[in-house]
Amino acid sequence: MAAFTAHTSAATTSHHHSPAGTAAILLQSRRRVYSPSRVSCSSAAADKSKTVVIGLAADSGCGKSTFVRRLAGVLGGGGGAASPARGNGNFPGSNTLVVGDAATVVCLDDYHSLDRAGRKARGLTALDPRANDFDLMYEQVRALKEGRAVDKPVYNHVTGRLDPPERVAPPKILVIEGLHPMYDERVRDLLDFSIYLDISDEVKFAWKIQRDMAERGHSLESIKASIDARKPDFEAYVDPQKQYADAVIEVLPTQLIPDEEEGKVLRVRLIMKEGVRHFAPVYLFDEGSTITWIPCGRKLSCSYPGIKFAYGFGAYYGHEVSVLEMDGQFDKLDELIYVETHLSNMSSRFYGEVTQQMLTHAGFPGSSNGTGLFQTILGLKIRDLYEQIVAERAAAVTADAINV
Amino acid sequence: MAAFTAHTSAATTSHHHSPAGTAAILLQSRRRVYSPSRVSCSSAAADKSKTVVIGLAADSGCGKSTFVRRLAGVLGGGGGAASPARGNGNFPGSNTLVVGDAATVVCLDDYHSLDRAGRKARGLTALDPRANDFDLMYEQVRALKEGRAVDKPVYNHVTGRLDPPERVAPPKILVIEGLHPMYDERVRDLLDFSIYLDISDEVKFAWKIQRDMAERGHSLESIKASIDARKPDFEAYVDPQKQYADAVIEVLPTQLIPDEEEGKVLRVRLIMKEGVRHFAPVYLFDEGSTITWIPCGRKLSCSYPGIKFAYGFGAYYGHEVSVLEMDGQFDKLDELIYVETHLSNMSSRFYGEVTQQMLTHAGFPGSSNGTGLFQTILGLKIRDLYEQIVAERAAAVTADAINV
């Protein structure tokens, strides 16, 4: 394994990052509540995790950016922060999204160690770990988590090359999104919560057709070839990360309409690991039981094919999980609020918050189905997780102050 | 149709009852709250229904007597009243059960107009309307409902003949149970609530084998022959009554075990008509939706094959109904109380009342499955219906007194 030395990209725009010690890793915004000398052993551990780190993994074109925009909506508290505009004004080519003072979303493409030409020369895809610098990723995520700013490389998606690095300050919540947030064990261990967006082949294909054929004029053959070319590396390096995820959003074709293959009506499953600190899985009616629920009926009318929920539990890669599933789509506001009312452990701050979030961002893809619903719920869960960690630290500080 | 004249059996033990006017229909326990002269038109209507009348229909050997014992347990308030001993001490051969001062259960076999020999002579089964005196049934149920005692015939199940009649005073709740409580339109119109126990052929056959072969030494062939012989009349005269029932308990083979044919594990459905006065159908989690629920899981462990509930709605003989279904059986107390906790509109007076009732009568057939559960629930529903009617009358009397 690579050495645990600190890497930065402060002095270089190349894909190679030399170890530079702590000089370029700026210390910034250290705790103000109490001085380091008063930190006891127990609270020192909590203190180290100043920034809460969230990993969001998925293949490209699988909804990471929509998820990030929904998360920004929840954390930013308003519609403005959910804009897809990049937050670092000084770096027009930046892939980083700054959500007010609440969160910073770093795109892991910035840790490509090989640029487009380099990958081509070596015959590697961007999914191959050899095209990515996990040492640097680890060092910089760790630095941010410990409260130190970093000079993060910037991968330019237009040129396919690395631009000059940008300064990233430690945020309250750091989201690292991309192909490999849980690939490297060291990075994985830094994550307070991890999410994997798992789009089934059928849906992925339908989405690619929609985007690349309809919007970009690609041929069906070229789309198929592109998917097939990515598949071996995807299955070797990206897909296995879902076993580490605390929550997986699985997107499948609907079961409500026989032979529906357009990927328009979706069956979406939210797989939630049990026993994760600060994360209480959402449930339907009776926690720990097995339920199906068609809310459409006497009280709620739905258009064809309706909405069907399922809730249950099981094992996922050897972990105990709860699973909430939504098949079908909302076509009216009252369906959405009705469903929200009957879900528990939502971590919402007020009645109808999920519905409000979904309405605010009604134009985002998936707003009428389980992808939008579950992304929004995970947004609330991340906010809740952050608040629990902060509260825990505050309690530890108080206890420490009493014990001095 | 037969004339609407009053019949009694006061002076005869034969199967023929002559019209005898009002002489033998004793006036008894008339209202004491206010005098007849102060009864207004509106409250006179309510006043007429002094006795609440419940119809309970089923084939013989289908659990009517167990149901009655469970109902007695609910209405009598204790275990003693649920004893199967007949209540009319003066008539040792009586088929009538008196539950304290709360209810009287009349067996409609007492209205057989042909005794066993008479049926044999005319080639009729007891299921044939021609073997039953619906004129007398109607007159006596009406008399009881209006507050007048009757001298009801008594059919002796041992001799197959009619014994001397017995005096029946108007109870708070009159339950008429037997083959034909909803057959005659006039009798049907007197019912405040009606129940049909619908045992599927497979289960009926399994039960008959268990009882008649194991306990009475009958042969399999004779059991089959007996069922086949009853079937035409059953289908012509008994089964069609279920279309009029406010609640049907349907007993089917389990779907949890493939090819289970012993009738030991049952799938039981409680079909509840919508829009019935004083009767709010029970529901699971979300009224008016469609749900399946396997309570066995993380919180509740069950032995094989577990328990599965279903709740939904639909049409039953053209009526809108809600349906609650239980497949499987309870084998532990905590399963029962867990299930009770998650059902709504149960009409119980205190937390756990259904469980308490089922435990008190744990020795009754069906105590571990949906038949016992739904019989108990309908017992609570009947008590609730009675109390609502009484409260409504009291309110009408008060309103009347104010308006005088």
Automatic annotation (TrEMBL), chains A, B:
**Taxonomic lineage of this organism?**
Eukaryota, Viridiplantae, Streptophyta, Embryophyta, Tracheophyta
Q: Does the keyword Nucleotide-binding apply?
A: yes
Under the heading InterPro entries, the entry gives:
P-loop_NTPase, PRK, PRK/URK
Protein name, per record: Phosphoribulokinase
Which UniProt keyword terms apply here? ATP-binding, Calvin cycle, Chloroplast, Disulfide bond, Kinase, Nucleotide-binding, Photosynthesis, Plastid, Transferase, Transit peptide
What species is given as this protein's source? Urochloa decumbens
Cell compartments where the protein resides:
Plastid, Chloroplast
Main subcellular localisation: plastid
Primary enzyme class: transferase
Tell me where on the tree of life, at the top rank, the source sits. Answer: Eukaryota
| Residue stretches making up the Phosphoribulokinase/uridine kinase domain | 53-257
Q: What Enzyme Commission number(s) does the record list for this chain? A: 2.7.1.19
Cellular component per GO? chloroplast
Q: Which GO terms describe its biological process?
A: reductive pentose-phosphate cycle
